[in-house]
Design goal:
The longest helix is centred in the middle third of the chain and has 21 residues. Helix content is 77%, strand content 0%. The chain has 6 helices and no strands. It has a single domain, classed as Helix Hairpins (Orthogonal Bundle), CATH 1.10.287.1080. The protein is globular and about 45 Å long. By secondary structure, the protein is an all-alpha fold.
Length: 103
């Protein structure tokens, strides 16, 4: 995992015990799953709009927001990002059709 993802994972874990008034991430945890999922939906929509708009810098910005909020979800669900990376590694080299047939 990249260094920034490792650092972000650590910070997200630390924020679980922070004051929701002082930390955006703690606020999301405090509000719960529905709030986190809503943010992911918003960020996914903004990512799609940025991609359709053709502005690469805006797409990178929105994708970073989407990844960030997905990382918050993983932390809230007690799933380490390495588990997702391991699943991607498992799928590497398989065709999408082949992988889907194994589900």
């Amino acid at each position: 995992m990249s260094e920034i993802l490792s650092q972000l994972t650590e910070v997200l874990e630390q924020r679980k015990g922070a004051d929701p008034k002082a930390s955006y991430v703690s606020h999301l945890y405090h509000k719960g799953l529905d709030t986190i999922l809503k943010k992911i939906g918003e960020e996914a929509t903004e990512t799609v709009i940025a991609a359709k708009g053709g502005e690469r810098d805006q797409l990178v910005y929105e994708m970073a927001d989407l990844w960030f909020h997905c990382m918050v979800l993983l932390a809230q669900q007690e799933i380490h990002p390495d588990q997702v990376l391991a699943e991607l590694e498992r799928r590497f080299g398989l065709s999408g059709h082949e992988e889907k047939a194994t589900r």
